[in-house]
Every structure is written in C-alpha cells, then in structure tokens.
C-alpha cells in the first residue's frame, strides 16, 4: 500500500520551498541591480579606440568633448576605430554596434585603419539633422587630417560639426522627404531648452525599466508567486485516487474483438500562392536618401570615403 505525505508535512515542505524561492529571487535581483548600475557606468563611454590611434589624454579629452557637445545637441556622439582585417564592412560595423545599445539619437564615426575607410552614420534625430549631404561635408573636412595622421584633430572637427548641425534647421534632410522638429532639451543653458521637456529623453522607457529592475518589486512578485504555489500545493496535498483504467481490467480475458474503417468525407483546402513583389535594392530610397537599416531595424543616414 502506498503511503501518502501528511497534510501538515506537505505544508511545511511547501513553505520551505517558498522561502528558498524568495531567497533565490532576492539574490538574483540584487545581482541584476548591481549589473545594471555597472552597465550604466560603462554606457557613458563614447570613444572606442581599438586601433590605438589616440593617447590616453587624447581619449579623455575627446570623451569630455563628446559629452559636452552631445548634451548641448541632444545626441550621443560616438567614435569607433579598429584595424581588424576580418571586420565587416564599415557601414555594417556601425550598424552592429548600434544594435547593441538602447534605441537613441546617435551619430557615429568609424575609422577603419586596415581598409583606410572613414564612415559616418546618424541614427534617430541625428539621422535627420546629420543627413548625407552634411556627412559629405564633414568627411571632406576631416579627410586631410586623417591622411596626415592627425586623428585627434579629425575627431575634434567631427564632434563640433555634428553638434553644430543639430541646431541648424536650414537644410533638414533635403535629400529625403520628411521633416523633424528641433531636438528639445531640459537643460536651461541649452539653445533648444524647453521647460516642458522631461529630464530624460526616454523617461517613460526608463521608468518602466526601473520598475522591472527594482529589487523590492521583484521580491514582491516572488512572494506573490510563491504564495500561489503554496496554496496550490496545500490544496492538492490530500490523498489522491490511485486507481486507473487498468486497475479492474482482466488482461487475460480482455481484448479487441473487432474493428472497421468508415469513410466520412474528403476535405480540400485551397491557398493562394503568394507573389514576390520585392524588387530589391538598397542604399537609396525613392527620394534619394542615402542610408540604410540595421539588422535591428534602425534606419540611419550614412556616408564615407577613403583617406
């Protein structure tokens, strides 16, 4: 005869499981919160000099410039370099990098030392203001410095020009068919200050993220889930019916005595064959906009050249 666990013992074990679950979730929440703080600290980086073109002091100066001019313009100004012979094409390299970050308004410059390529892309509002014609102007301005090895000077010019274009509404993406309002800022010292603008451009998304990553919210959710689990286990802790379909069946005197197949009906389903209307093409749209879309679905302006 099978022995069943008594109800008090079942409840005690359920409570122990519940306590262990709460402890695990609490530890995980604390670890996640710490990791999020660490990510926020590293996300402030703007200069990624994998090609080692800059000295430590130059990197620090450019970081300060990216932050200062970027805050005034309402965008993130990014600098990427590498000399990897196996790296993807410059445009794809920037797209892949952008897809690792939260959606935002950013402009990138990439200097590929192996292929001697320089490429600029603008995402979000940066793609509207720093459009292809303006990118060409920046490329023309910095190419002589890149050719001569004055990388710090080239990056400085790129930072200042990008920020300046963000406050210039005279030629908003003239090579594309859309307009955009001026980027707003909650900084009273910024030229585009708007007192109704939230302190954080993505404030709603950040509020949702803060709620989901809050330790106490996660602990409360764990307690609720654990309580539901305990109630269900306690409710089902009584004796269970163990008799099944084979309990009272005499296998020696039971068996299949006959079978037959009856035709009922035939059902045919017709599906229209899809037509391929995709004519392909990329790089330029009907309006002549030069740019593309990243693997993550983020559209951007773009332009570049050799140096």
Within the largest sheet, what's the order of strands? 1-2-3-4-6-5
Summarize the amount of helix as a percent range.
Answer: 40-55%
The topology string of helices and strands comes to HEHEHEEHHHHHEE
Structural class computed from helices and strand pairing: alpha/beta
Examine the coordinates and then state which fold CATH places here, giving the name of the CATH topology of the domain at 49-201 and 292-306: Diaminopimelate Epimerase, Chain A, domain 1
- Given as residue ranges, the uncertain stretches (5+ residues, pLDDT < 50) are 35-42, 173-186, 191-204, 276-289
CATH domain class name of the domain at 49-201 and 292-306? Alpha Beta
What does the radius of gyration come to?
31 Å
Give the overall silhouette. Answer: elongated
Taking the alpha carbons of the first and last residues, their distance comes to 86 Å
Beta-strand residue percentage: 5-15%
Average pLDDT, to the nearest integer?
74
Question: What can you see in these coordinates?
Answer:
By secondary structure, the chain is an alpha/beta fold. The chain has a domain at 49-201 and 292-306: Roll (Diaminopimelate Epimerase, Chain A, domain 1). It contains eight helices and six strands, in the order H-E-H-E-H-E-E-H-H-H-H-H-E-E. A six-stranded mixed sheet has the order 1-2-3-4-6-5, sandwiched between helices. Helix 3 (90-98) links the parallel strand 2 and strand 3 (106-112). Helix 1 runs antiparallel to helix 8, helix 2 runs parallel beside helix 6 and helix 5 packs antiparallel against helix 6 (151-165). It starts with 6 loop residues before the first helix and ends with a strand.
């Amino acid at each position: 005869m099978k022995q069943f666990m008594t109800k008090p013992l079942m409840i005690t074990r359920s409570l122990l499981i519940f306590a262990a679950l709460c402890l695990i979730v609490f530890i995980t929440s604390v670890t996640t919160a710490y990791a999020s703080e660490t990510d926020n600290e590293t996300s402030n980086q703007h200069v990624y000099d994998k090609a080692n073109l800059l000295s430590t002091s130059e990197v620090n100066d450019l970081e300060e410039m990216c932050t200062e001019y970027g805050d005034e313009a309402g965008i993130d100004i990014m600098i990427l370099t590498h000399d990897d012979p196996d790296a993807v094409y410059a445009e794809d390299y920037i797209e892949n990098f952008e897809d690792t970050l939260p959606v935002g308004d950013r402009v990138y410059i990439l200097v590929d030392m192996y292929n001697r390529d320089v490429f600029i892309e603008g995402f979000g509002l940066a793609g509207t203001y720093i459009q292809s014609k303006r990118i060409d102007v920046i490329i023309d301005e910095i190419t002589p410095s890149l050719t001569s090895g004055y990388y710090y000077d080239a990056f400085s010019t790129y930072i200042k020009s990008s920020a300046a274009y963000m406050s210039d509404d005279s030629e908003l993406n003239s090579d594309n068919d859309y307009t955009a309002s001026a980027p707003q800022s909650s900084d009273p010292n910024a030229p585009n200050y708007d007192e109704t603008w939230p302190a954080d451009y993505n404030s709603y998304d950040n509020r949702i993220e803060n709620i989901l990553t809050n330790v106490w919210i996660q602990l409360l959710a764990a307690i609720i889930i654990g309580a539901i689990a305990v109630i269900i286990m306690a409710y089902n802790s009584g004796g269970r019916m163990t008799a099944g379909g084979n309990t009272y069946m005499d296998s020696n005197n039971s068996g299949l005595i006959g079978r037959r197949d009856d035709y009922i009906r035939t059902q045919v389903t017709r599906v229209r064959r899809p037509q391929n209307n995709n004519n392909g093409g990329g790089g330029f749209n009907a309006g002549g906009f030069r740019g593309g879309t990243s693997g993550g679905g983020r559209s951007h302006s773009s332009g570049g050249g050799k140096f």
